Amino acid sequence: MKTLYELLGVRRQASHIEIELGYRRHLNRHLLGLGMQPLSRRAKQKLQAVRQAYLVLSSPGRRQAYDLDLTQREQRRDRMLDIGGAIIAVSALVIGMGLIVASPYFPAWPDFSADISQQIGQVFGTDAARPTASPASVSSSSPVSTPAQPHLASAR
């Protein structure tokens, strides 16, 4: 929706003279170009809107009330855009998470009661559930012997 300033083609801080010039510019544009032809319905509506904008903006009291109302509308619009943007962002996040969880590529949640090595095996597809040997059985059945510790003479 255009503001009254946009209808007249002036900036918001325009002086009374600039507002009047904008009004006359629109009158000349709509009336002089027609000659003796009657105005179309759309041209009449446009001319009426320009005339109404001039009446509001040419009166200091009406202009001040309009500026206050315009500022409040802009603030409400900005708040609604902020809320709408937040709603869209949260919706996109929820939908995205739903698509990820519903994906066949999303791994199943691990069973926390199972052994951690089994969980790692399930996630990486390795055989992590192999039985592991105890350190005592490794040292007794190991074909590699451990090097002898040099005996240190204690110098007391």
Describe this structure as you would to a colleague:
This protein has 156 residues and is mainly alpha-helical. Among the domains are: 4-58, DnaJ domain (Helix Hairpins, Orthogonal Bundle); 76-129. Helices cover 63% and strands 0% of the residues. The protein contains six helices and no strands. It has helices at residues 4-8, 16-32, 41-58, 60-102, 116-124, 135-141. Helix 2 runs antiparallel to helix 3 (41-58) and helix 3 crosses helix 4 (60-102). The mean pLDDT is 74.
The termini sit apart by 101 Å
In quaternary terms, these chains amount to single chain
Shape, please? elongated
Helix-strand makeup class: mainly alpha
**Helix tally?**
6
CATH homologous superfamily caption of the domain at 4-58: DnaJ domain
- In sequence order, what are the helices and strands, one letter per element? HHHHHH
CATH top level label of the domain at 4-58: Mainly Alpha
The helicity comes to: 55-70%
> What's the architecture of the domain at 4-58 in CATH terms?
Orthogonal Bundle
Mean pLDDT: 74
- Low-confidence stretches at least 5 residues in length (pLDDT < 50)? none
Overall strand count: 0
| Sheet of most strands | none
Protein name: DnaJ domain-containing protein
Region (Disordered): 129-156
Keywords: Membrane, Transmembrane, Transmembrane helix
InterPro entries: DnaJ_domain, J_dom_sf
